[in-house]
Write a structure and sequence with these properties.
The chain is of the alpha/beta class. Helix content is 48%, strand content 19%.
């Protein structure tokens, strides 16, 4: 194999090993829970940041015109406590509230309040609420599922009417995080009456932030719908579908809407702004005052009206991407608003993420290898990261698409570092190869004449500086021209290579063996006096004479050499004088019969 071929193969092997190592390291990191948790949590935080920035640019026209929230805020809570002296307040208050709202013909009235268990002291109030709810077809009530042990609360069977059928044509596990063993039932009169009952459970990410909701819960072998899912179904279709389909694209179909689901069957919400600033917010106490005066100052025609608590003392606030304190009732309203304006977030698939990471890595690698400036390559990589960040921002703004940000950034940084490592290895290999071309003889693999001259000069200067000796041996193969004429130049080349190897094996690692020219070779021996040099020369002469040299696959022959020795400073103060002295010794050896070490005098 040629030297160029060897260098190319070494470069390819080095690059392959580094890439393989990087892939292995990344694969091991991917298997590490701490790393995957870091990627997931960081990606979630990047989603939150994008949502906060985008919230100020979103149009809340549909939210204000289609959704109203009647809220037990801090002022209303104080008003109710002063008026009724207790919390929860008597439930017949809500009955009057329902009649007041229904008078303006809303789309629906949705309670994000749990009317659990009958209040013994208020049977009449409970019955009034039940009777009022059963007067209408558009009242929606919330209930919760949980996993409380059976011996603490007996799991009850729920009426068939609040179940839904789910035709899941996808591979999504729609209840992976929403399977429960127990439930907090509401008043039986509501469960068995005309109220539309949905679950109010929400999902929190590992950092406690609510970014998604699940459209269904699973309890005792049946599916139960999310409260705002059925409220939205009613808003779009004027009635409840009773059954839902998830298509092969992992989309939940409601009317003409196709809601994208995550691999865990969750729906990613698109947030519109901070609490209290998105929807029409009406404090409950104002409605109650209006009812007392027999007024009708609030009009909810064709709106979905949510009723829930926002007072911080009632502990129904959660953390969401756009706010640390966000009322649960506004989470329900956010889902409905997403459904009305078809504005849910869709996350890119794993395959798309791999393509994105691969493209960014390839672009980074190409820039690094194409650039001769480290500063330009670094700035270009930074621009790639900044540019991609803006792309993810606009994808979420324009297409509601959540493209990954953290993992691609890590991949780009790794690709940048890896490219520079590979580039450094290639450059060092190229430098090593070029240096070898400039200093090594291609036939014998010994240092060439140019390197010999530089090394001899350097060694003599060092010896002069430190007051030591340096010796020179010049070697010539005996009768080499006759040998070439007899056996051919290929056999002569083979002998040159083999003699060179004998010389290298019979010197110290500090000695420098060179091809001087033609069949002549030289050895520079640092820190060596003349006597030591002659002993080394005699040993080399004997080693060559005793070794049979292969001329070809079948023929062998013995070869002898003649040698001349010179030592600095005894035989010369400059390289020219030292070479002349060694040459004289070489010629004296040839005159005396060859196969020996000759002296200059």
């Amino acid at each position: 194999m040629s030297k160029i071929g060897k260098v190319t193969v070494l470069n390819i092997l080095a690059c392959t090993m580094i890439i393989f190592t990087a892939v292995v390291v990344f694969w091991l990191l991917a298997k590490n829970n701490l790393f995957t948790d870091f990627i997931r949590d960081s990606e979630n935080k990047s989603f939150d940041y994008r949502q906060k920035v985008l919230a100020s640019r979103k149009n809340n026209f549909l939210a204000k015109n289609n959704i109203a929230v009647i809220t037990v805020d801090d002022v209303s809570f104080e008003y109710l406590w002063d008026k009724y002296g207790e919390w929860p307040i008597p439930r017949d208050i809500y009955a009057g509230l329902i009649d007041y709202i229904e008078a303006s013909q809303p789309k629906s009235v949705v309670f994000d309040l749990l009317f659990i268990k009958s209040l013994k002291s208020s049977d009449n109030a409970d019955n009034k609420l039940i009777n009022t709810v059963n007067k209408y077809n558009n009242i929606f009530m919330a209930m919760n599922f949980d996993n409380i042990p059976d011996d603490a609360r007996k799991p009850l069977d729920l009426p068939e009417r609040i179940e839904v059928n789910v035709n899941n044509q996808s591979k999504v596990n729609i209840v992976s995080n929403m399977t429960f063993s127990n439930c907090r039932t509401i008043l039986q009169g509501l469960l068995n009456g005309k109220a539309n009952v949905g679950i109010a459970n929400v999902n929190r990410s590992t950092d406690g932030i609510i970014r998604t909701v699940s459209p269904f819960a699973f309890y005792k072998g049946h599916y139960y719908p999310y409260l705002s899912l059925i409220a939205g179904d009613n808003f779009l279709n004027g009635k409840l579908s009773g059954g839902y389909t998830i298509n092969k694209n992992s989309e939940l179909l409601i009317g003409n809407r196709a809601i994208p689901l995550t691999e865990n069957g969750e729906i990613i919400l698109n947030w519109y702004g901070e609490a209290g600033r998105v929807f029409e917010m009406v404090p409950m106490y104002k409605l109650l005052l209006d009812i007392e005066k027999s007024g009708q100052n609030y009009n909810f025609k064709n709106k979905t009206v949510y009723i829930g608590t926002t007072a911080t003392s009632l502990h129904d606030t959660k953390s969401v991407p756009v706010s640390r304190l966000y009322p649960g009732v506004e989470i329900h309203a956010t889902f409905l608003n997403n459904l009305i304006d078809n504005n849910f977030i869709k996350k890119t698939t794993l395959g798309t993420d791999i393509i994105i990471c691969s493209l960014l890595a390839i672009i980074t690698i190409l820039i690094v290898f194409a650039s001769s400036s480290a500063i330009f390559a670094t700035l270009s990589t930074i621009m790639i990261l900044v540019g991609y960040t803006f792309i993810t921002y606009y994808l979420m703004f324009i297409s509601n698409l959540w493209a990954p940000l953290v993992l691609p950034a890590i991949i780009v940084i790794m690709a940048f570092a890896l490219s520079y490592i590979i580039k450094y290895i290639i450059k060092s290999r190229d430098f090593e190869y070029q240096y070898k071309l400039a200093t090594v003889d291609g036939l014998t693999d010994l240092y060439n004449h140019r390197y010999f001259q530089e090394s001899l000069k350097q060694q003599m200067e060092t010896a002069k500086r430190y007051g030591t000796s340096v010796s020179l041996i010049i070697v010539d193969i005996d009768f080499f021209k006759k040998f070439n004429d007899t056996y051919g130049h290929q056999a002569g080349d083979a002998v040159l290579r083999q003699v060179a190897q004998v010389l290298k094996k019979n010197v110290r690692t500090s000695d420098i063996v060179c091809r001087y020219g033609g069949e002549e070779m030289s050895i520079i021996l640092p820190n060596t006096n003349n006597t030591e040099a002659r002993i080394n020369a005699e040993r080399i002469c004997k080693a060559v004479a005793e070794k049979p040299f292969k001329l070809n696959a079948t023929d062998e022959s013995h070869v002898t050499i003649s040698l001349g020795v010179a030592t600095f400073p005894k035989d010369g103060e400059i390289p020219k004088d030292l070479i002349e002295t060694a040459d004289k010794g070489l010629y004296r050896a040839k005159e005396n019969g060859r196969n020996q070490v000759g002296a200059a005098e």
